[in-house]
Amino acid sequence: MVGLALVKSIYALPTWTKVVALVAEHWRLQRVLGCEGNPPSKWSAYRFAAKLRENSGSVERCIDSVVEGLKAKLPTYGRDLAIDASDMPAYANGQRFVSKDSEVERNWHTDPDASWGHRSAVSTRRGGGFFGYRLHAAVCTATDLPVAWSVETAKANETRFAADLIDTAQRRGCMAATAAMDKGYDQRPVYEQCAERDCLPLIPLRQTPDVKRGDHRPPECQHGVWTFAGSDRKRGATKWRCPTGECKPASTWVAADRLHPLIPRETKRFKAGYRKRAAVEREFGRLKNQWGLKPLRVRGLDRVRLHADLTVLTKLACALSRARGQALNSS
Ligand SMILES: [Zn+2]
Question: Please, which pLDDT band fits residue 297 given cuts at 50, 70 and 90?
Fold first, then answer.
């Protein structure tokens, strides 16, 4: 039955009915799944999915063990993260009324857990509202593989979930030493949550009043702008030096906060690390277009969550079997 979930994601099939039909037609798939001559019915597939939703702990444990396996094979997996959220339009159109005049509530086509959210413009796609869910994910920038993720209703603010993603990554044994996030996460609580988890944030600044005032700039003196001279994680501060060393004292510590992160924004390390944030965007694209995350053919938060969990789990299981140098059909 777990094999059916793998087939569903590998062939990017939207419904269990299609999965069962595919398996019924192909004896090779039946052999791989260990059900040659006796393919499962769509009813047993849907019953299996229902059982998984009731027992979400078993899916979680399965994900944990695959992540642990990847960690053992790929030492850099989970060290540097890129965090972002991506829209998942619901299998419903978000209209509560069939027509404005009659005001007849149409409740058989809508998804009660989905909500209206906003997405920003990406290259040629225009920004605007969408109805559905968002997948919040932390992706490893070295391997392009997801480490932690969660599905939430679209209107929920993305900054609320960064800390949970880092917690999940660390619970699964990943280091999460740095986390690159876009401007949407440039909120003071995100920096505090990162500091509590010993994770260095790589987030560009929004033009808030203190930034316009220049409070984020390095210290200066008559000799010029002071240069970065390292950071001390334990102390939670960065060190800056007078360019000529003539000032007394010639260096000073600046406590880390949103305006003065431990990896200063003017350093090469920040720029290189932030550039790797694209890993999370790439992974969203692959999950949606190659692994069948999109389009949703289920409604309700628990069903959408299971769909996302099984999709990402399949992707990770395939990566693990590759990393172990084994064929998929032996897993
Ligand atoms: Zn000076």
Answer: confident
More confident residue, 29 or 204: 204
Q: Domain residue spans in the chain?
A: 55-204+272-330, 220-264
- Cα 252 to ligand 1 centroid, rounded to whole Å: 11
Contact 2, 58 (CB under 8 A): no
**Measured in angstroms, how far is the CA atom of residue 214 from the centroid of ligand 1?**
19
What's the 106 CA to ligand 1 centre distance in angstroms?
A: 70
Quick: pLDDT tens for 224-241.
999 999 999 999 999 999
Cα 267 to ligand 1 centre (Å): 20
Spell out a b/e string for 172-191, using b for 16 or more CB atoms within 10 Å of the CB, else e: bebbbebbbbbeebbbeebb
Indicate the class that CATH gives domain 55-204+272-330.
alpha beta
259 alpha carbon – ligand 1 mean position (Å): 22
pLDDT, position 236: 94
The rounded Å distance from CA 238 to ligand 1 centre is 17
| Mean local confidence (pLDDT), 116-123 | 74
User: 85: part of which helix (H) or strand (E)?
Assistant: strand 80-89
Do 276 and 141 contact (CB within 8 A), yes or no? Answer: yes
Residue 194 tokens read as 């990162």
Give the tens place of pLDDT for each residue, 2-18.
778 778 877 778 788 88
